[in-house]
Amino acid sequence: MLQAIHHVAIICADYARSKHFYTEILGLQVIQEVYREERQSYKLDLALAGHYVIELFSFPAPPERPSRPEAAGLRHLAFAVADIDAVIARLHTKGVDTEPIRIDKYTGKRFTFFSDPDGLPLELYEV
């Protein structure tokens, strides 16, 4: 039986830029970083609040993947936050634009979207 989601794997176009974004801007912690010579690829394991959540990969010349509007496949990656206004303010100070805050009509919770350096849609969801 399934127990939980173990991690999300993301292939980035510019490894240094994405590593900076996920670690310095979003604040994820590096667990391990390896270079896989046979694949000419970095693999960066990242944690959020001590839990392994993201594998960030680099590959030579990865093909682009459509992400908006509403392309088939993974729609977005959502992060739970306690204070959405504070997180948005922090992102804005680091040059990250966010969409206007919306209200989930079923839960009444506030949420917004922004993008990683490759245009992957990311969500902040206030819990």
From TrEMBL:
It comes from the Bacteria. The keyword Metal-binding applies. This is Glyoxylase I family protein. Residues 4-127 form the VOC domain. GO terms for molecular function: metal ion binding. CDD domains: VOC_Bs_YwkD_like. PROSITE patterns: VOC. Signal peptide: none annotated. The keyword Metal-binding applies. It comes from Parapedobacter koreensis. Keywords: Metal-binding. It holds the Pfam family Glyoxalase.
